[in-house]
Backbone:
């Protein structure tokens, strides 16, 4: 199954979220179709025109937006007034602006985190969840990728990632990158933003993909600034908050799509979510890592939304 043809939005606008932030929002597909919102990853990665093509434009009202500080949203790379609670509020504001009473949500990686947290906050607004590359934002999940775990899988990429950190700085790599990226030294900040982002891009696919790495490189400033800001602050949520509150969404249809060989967000996160979320359906994708662009993951997302009886509201 291939992606749907390229389409242009029928509506774009900048939404004033607060005194500082303006959010870029677009709609494409069928204005009277089933509303579905695409929550991109990072936090801080931004959206892509490619994301419109995962949904049948004849049947879906496709809503894509750039979260605070990234993509076409302004100010670019801003971390002030940029927390998980703020992003949840932005989704609610978008739904209110568009007069949508109930939404289908797709979320990948950090987008899966945000989708789950939004649903747990406003379950009455959510019709369904399709989640890819589950990220539960627990301390151990962050430690795996930025301190010890993933380094054993890609030691060559890891060496380049931590290049420039002394022995003491390597004891807490996240904190070291946070302080270097958010320092007043712009040249140093850009250097470490790029190292941070390329490490994630290289680790995101089972088979090496220059396309994926280049995409991470292109958004390295917003991605690294906002990710380090969020992860340094434990994503502004309680430890294991998603699992603790999972019963609040047990009646919401949920599909979990996860690559068996995901190094960024290992399969145990999908497994733990599915075990707690008993009504969810889990789809293990063999021969896939973390990226939406991997063939098996793309195919499964398309299949799920093609069987649209679950999503037409």
Residues:
């Amino acid at each position: 199954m291939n992606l749907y043809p390229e389409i242009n939005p029928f509506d774009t606008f900048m939404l004033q979220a607060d005194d500082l932030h303006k959010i870029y929002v677009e709609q494409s597909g069928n204005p009277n179709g089933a509303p579905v919102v695409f929550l991109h990853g990072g936090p801080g990665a931004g959206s892509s025109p490619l994301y419109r093509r995962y949904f049948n434009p004849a049947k879906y009202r496709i809503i894509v937006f750039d979260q605070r500080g990234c993509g076409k949203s302004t100010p670019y790379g801003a971390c002030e007034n940029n927390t998980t609670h703020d992003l949840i509020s932005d989704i609610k504001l978008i739904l209110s602006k568009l007069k949508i009473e109930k939404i289908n949500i797709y979320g990948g990686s950090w987008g899966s985190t945000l989708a789950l947290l939004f649903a747990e906050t406003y379950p009455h607004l959510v019709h369904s969840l399709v989640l890819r590359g589950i990220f539960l934002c627990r301390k151990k999940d962050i430690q795996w990728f930025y301190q010890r775990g993933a380094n054993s899988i890609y030691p060559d990429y890891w060496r380049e990632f931590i290049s420039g950190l002394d022995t003491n700085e390597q004891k807490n790599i996240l904190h070291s990158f946070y302080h270097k990226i958010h320092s007043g030294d712009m040249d140093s900040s850009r250097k470490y933003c790029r190292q941070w982002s390329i490490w994630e891009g290289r680790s995101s696919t089972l088979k090496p993909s220059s396309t994926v790495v280049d995409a991470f490189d292109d958004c390295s400033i917003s991605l690294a600034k906002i990710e380090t800001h969020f992860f340094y602050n434990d994503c502004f949520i309680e430890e294991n908050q998603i699992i603790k509150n999972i019963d609040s969404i047990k009646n919401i249809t949920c599909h979990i799509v996860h690559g068996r060989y995901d190094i960024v967000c290992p399969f145990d996160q999908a497994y733990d979510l599915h075990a707690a979320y008993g009504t969810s359906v889990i789809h293990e994708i063999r021969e896939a890592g973390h990226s939406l662009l991997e063939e098996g993951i793309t195919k499964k997302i398309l299949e799920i939304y093609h069987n649209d009886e679950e999503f037409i509201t």
